[in-house]
Specification:
Elements (H helix, E strand, L loop, with lengths): L1 E5 L11 H16 L4 E5 L6 H14 L4 E4 L20 E6 L3 H4 L1 H4 L4 H12 L3 E4 L2 H11 L6 E3 L16 H7 L6 E5 L8 H14 L5 E5 L4 H13 L6 E3 L5 H10 L2 E4 L8 H8 L4 E4 L2 H7 L4 E3 L4 H12 L2 H14 L5 H13 L7
Parallel strand pairs: 1-2, 1-3, 3-4, 4-5, 5-6, 7-8, 7-10, 8-9, 10-11, 11-12
Helix pairs in contact: 1-15, 8-13, 11-14
Length: 363
């Protein structure tokens, strides 16, 4: 079959986030594994809906596309309201990363509900839907009413570069970011579901009781206003000198921060997959994460789980993991064994199986 990948994620802010990393690695894995399909890449024209439609249909016709894989359909916000009819006889595959706006609709659907439901309907009408976890699949069925027979769970993988010996440049990287104490690493911004505010409160409690023994390092793309909000909260909690916000950093430095951390804390309220928790495990770092959503499913017995809505549980979990060396060693060992199950090769194979359930228009 002739299969096309939508490459809009390469032109958006997603390349600095988990979705961009996911799409890039998935596409790379699929093309490496392929032995009988032909692959094409579609870079859309977003200068207007009619121009997009014309560009898409010319592309489909020119390359005789049998399956168009829309790897991140919400990328088109707020430019294009995708319509299944535009693809004609070409079959459409989509990826569903989560249904967070449906779960926390009071937070995420106050302004853009019309666009969200439109794209969700486009996903529903696609021929095959790839879900990145069983949690996302089950929530898509429960909250969105998606046909379970269309959904194929493909999970996610760990890039090989995360499974590397500690870098000799670690002292330089830590000094560059003003990290001069043992530290807890968190990856995320001040988005509601990332739960950074409860983590800051929990960290302030344990660090004061430990005479400011640790730093909390926050790594992600965060706008200046978001940084100011977080640092004001840290100041009010009396821990501003112990909180470091690095902003977005390249992967080499990120791997160093994973490897050098005492603990990776990821008490998110909801994740469709939770890739950072697995990346931390691959780097030999013990993980504290949530007991809900996909985080419980994906990390299994290899992470210490807490109720992310409970500051007390997060606090107790941080103290237990940081101050019990034998437990840290146990979770490091479990984590390294656990992540071996998550490879991009496995993801690629599952996607190819999903394609094989479709018949090309020429069949």
């Amino acid at each position: 079959m002739n299969i096309a990948f939508d490459m809009q994620f390469m032109k958006s802010g997603s390349m600095l986030r988990g979705i961009g990393r996911y799409c890039h690695n998935m596409i790379q894995s699929i093309t490496k594994l392929n032995s009988h399909h032909s692959f094409f890449h579609f870079y859309p024209d977003l200068s207007g809906e009619e121009k997009f439609k014309n560009h898409l249909q010319q592309f489909l016709k020119q390359h005789s596309i049998d399956v168009f894989h829309m790897v991140s359909p919400f990328e088109y916000f707020p430019f294009i309201k995708l319509e299944r009819d535009w693809f004609g006889s070409t079959q459409v595959a989509t990826i569903l990363y989560d249904v967070i706006p449906l779960i926390f609709h009071q937070i995420y659907l106050t302004k853009y509900a019309d666009f969200y439901y439109h794209i969700l309907n486009f996903i529903k009408n696609s021929e095959v839907i790839f879900s990145i976890s069983e949690t996302t699949k089950n929530d898509a069925i429960s909250y969105a009413g998606i046909d379970p027979l269309k959904i194929h769970v493909i999970y996610g993988g760990i890039e090989e570069k995360f499974i590397t010996p500690p870098s000799i440049k670690a002292p330089h990287v830590l000094a560059h970011h003003q990290i001069h104490k043992p530290y807890v690493l968190f990856i995320g911004n001040n988005e509601f579901r990332k739960n950074i505010f409860r983590l800051l409160q929990a960290f302030s409690i344990i660090n004061k009781s430990l005479n400011h023994k640790y730093q909390l390092v926050i790594t992600s793309f965060i706008v200046d206003q978001g940084k100011e909000i977080l640092m004001n909260i840290a100041k009010n909690l009396g821990i501003s000198n112990d909180v470091i916000i690095t902003g977005y950093i390249p992967d080499d430095d990120l791997i160093t921060l994973y490897q050098s951390a005492e603990l990776f804390a990821f008490p998110s309220l909801y994740e469709g997959f939770g890739l950072p928790a697995l990346e931390a495990m691959a780097c030999g770092t013990p993980v504290l994460t949530s007991n809900n959503s996909s985080l419980s499913e994906i990390t299994g017995h290899a992470a210490y789980h807490v109720n992310p809505f409970s500051i007390e549980e997060i606090t107790n979990g941080l103290m237990y993991m940081l101050e019990t060396p034998s437990i840290k060693k146990e979770y490091i060992k479990k984590g390294l064994q656990h992540v071996a199950n998550y490879t991009w090769e496995n993801v690629g194979r599952e996607v190819l199986r999903g394609y094989d359930t479709l018949d090309s228009p020429s069949d």
